[in-house]
Amino acid sequence: MSDSDRLWEVFARRKRADAFEHIGCVEAPNSDLGRVYAWQTYDEAKWFEMIIAPREAFHCVNRAEQPFTLHPSAEALS
Amino acid sequence: MARFTDDELMRKVQEGFIVESEADMTESYKKALITQLTVQGDTELMSAPAYFMAAKDAPSTNTMVSATAIIQDEMGHANIAYRLLEDLGVSRDELLYERPPEKFKNPYGFDQPLENWAELVTANGLYDRAGITLLGDVHRHTSYGPLKRGLVKVGMEENFHLRHGEVWMRRLCEASGEAREMVQKAVDWMFPMGVEWFGMPDEKKHHNAQLDFRLKGMTNDQLRQTWLKAVVPLCDELGIDVPAHVNPDTEEVELEFEFPVQYDPEAKRWLLDEPITWDQVWERWRNRGPMNEQFVDWMRTSRQAVQGVLEA
After folding, report:
1. Domain A6-77: which topology?
2. Per DSSP, which regions of chain B are E strands?
């Protein structure tokens, strides 16, 4: 990934009433491009809803390790 | 790292333990996983220029759309493997843009030119079947959680590619005449390529970290046999000749040539009566196929062009 890119975790659910599922992640310099890349990359289903959030926004509650590996650039941001 | 020793981790993963982060890994586990993911990413990525080359021959707008959708899927699958590699500290930029072309770990089959629509759909039928066989096994058995989850999308989409390939192979075969001949010609060179895809036979490969660490579940020969059991009956049904048959007693597929054999890349022709050693196969693979450099170059040019504009 280039220096200006951040990591965006992608969550989606197929239909109303479904729980969100973590389906992957994309790299993008901002959330607008992140949304485009996520929608284009994870097009394996007709999602009812898809959301993204920056990786560094996730904080583990009960374990010492983070749920997603923190990229050096993300660590610098937090 | 070093929460476990290699032996402890091997025992744990055989009992169903799922590795979720580097903290659970040993150095050997990480090394085997990086190799596996690099092969996976490179194979998906290099299928794209190979398919693109033949997609230009699509017979209609609709078929062009399906072919390019397949190419997009393959790029997405490559992205999944490379992303997982980045989380293990491997630089994707270095892998994609700085590695010499001959260091890409895609199979020899994707160093070859795909030159017409029949070759594209036969590649979907035979090579995507190889992909499903290999990655389906990884999906079922891998001890690495992030990869198991990432492969859900890959499996769904590869099945669509396979169906595209098989439906079109059937359609061309039913058209008879020249269309059928083109499929036969494509199968003649892609079938032995597919047999070779699964690598060294088990009897020559004694130690396998990927099996020990449960990064896959089946051996090379088991995977090859699974592929053969799908491809040979398909070709039989389509009336396409392949140098292999199902043994009715054992229900196993038996090859009708002494594998591995000599290949002439310029003529795209296998010399089935000229057996060679595995050392010779490795040498051919190391020397790479005719399209290796060009395919890597195609993948790189657009970024160079866009970057030039952005920095101007």
Report:
1. Ubiquitin-like (UB roll) (3.10.20)
2. 244-246, 253-255, 261-264, 269-275
